Amino acid sequence: EPEVTQTPSHQVTQMGQEVILRCVPISNHLYFYWYRQILGQKVEFLVSFYNNEISEKSEIFDDQFSVERPDGSNFTLKIRSTKLEDSAMYFCASSPRKGWMGQETQYFGPGTRLLVL
Amino acid sequence: SQQGEEDPQALSIQEGENATMNCSYKTSINNLQWYRQNSGRGLVHLILIRSNEREKHSGRLRVTLDTSKKSSSLLITASRAADTASYFCATASWDGNNRLAFGKGNQVVVIP
């Protein structure tokens, strides 16, 4: 069964460093998402992406964050200058269509656990 | 903004028993989805129920949706030790976007 994959599974970085989290969505999906989950807290929406541009972003997704689909398969989240509070599990998700009957399900990857020291 | 909110109770049950957890939300929704998360792992999609549906089944899972009360329930029948996990509801709105708003999650422990 196709699945969303993410790399790396864990990343440790120093505050102020740039990190890039990578995702390979399910191949025939058109919508891509990033969410994060700070330890012990809710899963929070960061950004959605369609047709090579951002569809929607949350207030968390400030200028330090960016997303890119550099080729036909990868979807990346970049944090330019990490802060301690960026420590979280970051989930990538994809869905076939948006708001279309039977196509709304978002399939999540296993996550990247980011620790900022 | 919409928000899924589960009753924050942790649930501990014996294997074979049924587990029920609830979720409430605040605004109009397009659909509501339930996910499972094993400790420190990814989110596994369990079931999606649309706003015009009242009940849905998938294997040992039964989901109900009451849009008048803005609430949903997830029932796991004949629980197994492998059902031990956190369960989250997440809602998607009608506003043309597909962002999911997650609740805090319910921790379920099934004792063998």
Structure explained in plain terms:
Chain A is globular, with a radius of gyration of 14 Å. Chain A is mainly β and 117 residues long. The mean pLDDT of chain A is 91. In chain A, strands 2, 4, 5, 6, 9, 10 and 11 form a seven-stranded mixed sheet that branches. Chain A has strands spanning 5-7, 10-13, 19-24, 31-37, 43-50, 53-57, 65-68, 75-79, 88-95, 107-108, 112-116. Helix content of chain B is 0%, strand content 54%. Chain B has no helices and eleven strands. Chain B has strands spanning 5-6, 11-14, 19-24, 31-37, 43-50, 55-58, 61-66, 71-76, 85-92, 100-102, 106-111. In chain B, a hairpin with a 5-residue loop joins strand 4 and strand 5. The radius of gyration of chain B is 13 Å and the shape is globular. The model of chain B has no long low-confidence stretch (mean pLDDT 88). Chains A and B meet through strand 4, strand 5, strand 9 and strand 10 of A and strand 4, strand 5, strand 9 and strand 10 of B.
Topology summary:
The complex is a heterodimer of chains A (117) and B (112).
Chain A: E1 5-7, E2 10-13, E3 19-24, E4 31-37, E5 43-50, E6 53-57, E7 65-68, E8 75-79, E9 88-95, E10 107-108, E11 112-116
Parallel strand pairs in A: 2-11
Antiparallel strand pairs in A: 1-3, 3-8, 4-5, 4-9, 5-6, 7-8, 9-10, 9-11
Chain B: E1 5-6, E2 11-14, E3 19-24, E4 31-37, E5 43-50, E6 55-58, E7 61-66, E8 71-76, E9 85-92, E10 100-102, E11 106-111
In percent, how much strand structure appears in the residues of chain A? over 45%
Oligomer: heterodimer
Mean pLDDT of chain A: 91
Provide the low-confidence segments of chain A as ranges: none
Number of strands of chain A: 11
Largest sheet of chain B: 6 strands, mixed
- Find the structural class of chain B using helix and strand composition: mainly beta
Continuous helix count of chain A: 0
CA radius of gyration of chain A is 14 Å
Largest interface: A-B, 28 and 25 residues
Specify the helix fraction band of chain A: under 10%
Separation of the first and last Cα atoms of chain B: 40 Å
* Major sheet of chain A: 7 strands, mixed
